[in-house]
Amino acid sequence: MAKVNWTFQALEDLDEIAEYRAKYSEKYASFLIDAIFEQTQALEAFPYSGRVVPEINVPSIRELIVQKYRVVYSVPDRSQVHILTVRPSSFPLGEVPIGGAD
Question: Which residues contact 87 (CB under 8 A, 6 or more apart)?
């Protein structure tokens, strides 16, 4: 089983996403954050289940798509997963501010 660690950046991303989404629906914001945590828990058993991030093309840098968001993570070895960032899936990494996935 891999240990899933969240970076400060990834947790900050989640806070910003939740705040942005809560402006429109607190219920949906809560549902979305719960879904992201639930999906990333599966990485404990299946750390390589996400696809390789196309922009980076490095086998140890992967992503899960949850709703409209990309959960980018690294797998340095089978025992560790580091959640790096959570970004809108409709844009390449680094091109859009957090939250703006509309």
Answer: 13, 69, 70, 72, 93, 96, 98
